[in-house]
Amino acid sequence: MKHKKRLWAYSLGFIGFIVASQAIASEEVTAEAGHAGTVALTFLWIAVILFFAKIGGLVEKIGQPAVLGELVIGVLLGNLALIGIHTFDPILENAIIKFLAELGVVILLLQIGLESNIGEMKKVGLPAFIVAVVGVVLPFILGTYVVGPWLMPGLDMNAYLFLGASLTATSVGITARVFKDLGKLQTPEAQIVLGAAVIDDVLGLIILAVVSAIVTIGAVSAGMIGWILAKAILFLVGSIILGQFIAPMLGKFFAKIQTGIGMKFTLIIIFGLVLAYMAQLIGLAPIVGAFAAGLILDPVHFRYFKDPKIVADVKQVLKNSETNDETAKAINSAIESHSRRHIEDLIEPVAFLLVPIFFVLTGMEVSLEALFNVPILLVALAITAVAIIGKLLAGYSIRGVNRNIVGFGMVPRGEVGLIFAAIGKGLGVISEEMFSVIVIMVILTTLVAPPVLNWLIKRQK
Amino acid sequence: MKHKKRLWAYSLGFIGFIVASQAIASEEVTAEAGHAGTVALTFLWIAVILFFAKIGGLVEKIGQPAVLGELVIGVLLGNLALIGIHTFDPILENAIIKFLAELGVVILLLQIGLESNIGEMKKVGLPAFIVAVVGVVLPFILGTYVVGPWLMPGLDMNAYLFLGASLTATSVGITARVFKDLGKLQTPEAQIVLGAAVIDDVLGLIILAVVSAIVTIGAVSAGMIGWILAKAILFLVGSIILGQFIAPMLGKFFAKIQTGIGMKFTLIIIFGLVLAYMAQLIGLAPIVGAFAAGLILDPVHFRYFKDPKIVADVKQVLKNSETNDETAKAINSAIESHSRRHIEDLIEPVAFLLVPIFFVLTGMEVSLEALFNVPILLVALAITAVAIIGKLLAGYSIRGVNRNIVGFGMVPRGEVGLIFAAIGKGLGVISEEMFSVIVIMVILTTLVAPPVLNWLIKRQK
Q1: What dotted CATH number matches B105-460?
Q2: Measured between CB atoms, which of A43, A253, A350 is closest to B273?
Q3: Which of residues 285-304 of B touch A (CB under 8 A)?
Q4: At B184, is the secondary structure helix, strand, or coil?
Q5: Which of these, A233, A231, A214, A234, lies nearest to A222 by C-alpha position?
Q6: Residues A326, B327: C-beta atoms closer than 8 Å
Q7: Looking at chain B, which residue has its C-alpha nearest residue A58?
Q8: What is the CATH number of domain A104-460?
Q9: What are phi and psi of B318, to 5 degrees?
Q10: Domain boundaries, chain B
Q11: How confident is the model at residue A68 (pLDDT cuts 50, 70, 90)?
């Protein structure tokens, strides 16, 4: 209780500080120095978003992933205007914050790509591929051609396409984190789900490319879809195959300029941003490029880079103590694996800074007014049911494992679903109502999976 | 030779890619999707800046700090227009890149603050304080009242004030890195220089506050200077003293929400950004606030946070090997010191991303046309001589150590000098010519110090 009271005290204190400083700012800063004032205010808004993202992180205490809390707190901040509080309205109009959010998604997909691994994708093999394909095709068809037109009749075909597309992609991040939290990452069910989620992500990104192009160009033809599909596959496969050759060469070469972690980090970011730009250039979403960049960049390409700090630490330990050969070997291999993983650890702080901005901002764009609309709420519940049933049937398309666990492991939608919704909204295809429906679906699938998985796994024992 | 040829091949290839993609972009992307195209182009520009920053990092091969290379490559990119290449001109007009650069300086000063330590400042004591004060006062007076009016007569008094101010602050980063590269961090000379550089930084920031206020308000009065000085000292000392109480409380409290490195990182960033905003709110530069935030945030306030990855690594090592108690202890203490330092390691990747943007952009703002002006070049050389002499005399104000090493250790100007120049230019006080003079002075003092220090230290043996 004391804990909770303090949280309220800190939150209210912080909100009070924002309101007070806004009042001062509107008189002094804005009047005085235009540009410098805007920059400093943007610093404050970034701090505000990160602060509330962390308050949202409290949902982890009740077993939910942090991304859910960031969305929910965003929804709250974005709808304070309904009760007359307009303190946070400037965030939604700030072009720099909007850019930082978009850079955040690119960094997130780069990160997901880095965590994925072409080798792992091959190992999980056929069952993962079947689960992925069924789990993408079924919800897409159900969403686009069945429940979409049935529950929300009279809309443009493009809107149904985006609805179907947003139902496809399982969130790798959420899925992995749920299994990790339950300590079940090494079970065959978890392996299949993780493998399928990776393939699923690639399929989802291709669907996004196809759907985006259909919407942008306005017409649908088999040849056009074929060309876009070919272009998307060519870009992904091409960048992966070429990248396998170019990345180690560039890694080896740039290691000659500097071998520090700064160079390693910068190469990763340059790869991610250039491929994001190239993807946009050929008509794909930038996140597709960032994901491909992440897939290309395997830690092994950076074996030429050493982390001087960790190496120094280990040398110190070995020097200061009587160490037998076994221990020395074990420590060296731990350091080896640590520095391999370091490539992901390096991107992490940048993700800490930028990714919550995307999710809080996405939450802020949800209009709660639409939720007071009972028909929309009912539609959202029905769409959520379809989202769950589609993935459950995908689980039932294979044998030899607990198919309920596989199916529910695929249920959480997250980043990618929201990105679909945001892009659809940006293109003017998805209405505010359908945007709200998709966000509710993402929140509910994310919310429903952890407790159900928990129950299924415990029942299995 | 092969190495150099490949570098040219990669650089030319990358430039070719930029030019080609620009050509495509101007036809396709821009025409098609305005906002998305602009965002993707900004991704490309960030990648371009980071790429060339790393090419600039090649100066490390000839014993120069990377910051120098970033400046020089910026100067080159910014002046390609002189030979008809306008490819990189859009970077200087991009408001988002400009914001990222300004966020970069804030992150840098937060980082410098984190590396500094109130305890260390006390230890180096009197000699460091004397060197700092003489090394700030002498160049400031020489610049503002002697060489400024003498070499560039007829300018506004405010311009001389900014020139004098930009001559004061030794670059902590460059100084520390020079001694570190030479393996001389533990000598008394290095200790005094490092201590003095920290005090010097605080003095420089106060001078910046005073000078900025004088320029902004337009009038100079002893009472006003006193009030600004009091406000600056009150803000710094107040935030440091209050921060000592509040930071551990907040650290302890937020550790209850999450104990991961994400929370640790986010708290540091929130502190830095909020204090940067508050500094701006009371009329100081945002970087003053960021520096104060860094000073407040000592690793000890984050003892409630553990890095689960490193802890798991160590447990694994200890489990897999026959380890005696001595070794286990040594490893644990190495991990302990590693996780204490982790607070700085977490900010580093964000600095890798944003800080080079500031330095490359600063270099790009240097007009080489001004350098073809022989009088300006001569003035720059004279100002550089004053910058060096001022710090050498500071070295001679103490006894018992090699005073030439202390003096030359204080010579490199860097970040802070450039920030002064950039702010002065932003306020319209510093002309393009004087901006170029200051940048040349920064480049030359940075360039001159490493070889001279190297020579002095070797002669000492």
Answers
A1: 1.20.1530.20
A2: A43
A3: 286
A4: coil
A5: A214
A6: no
A7: B257
A8: 1.20.1530.20
A9: -65, -35
A10: 2-93, 105-460
A11: confident
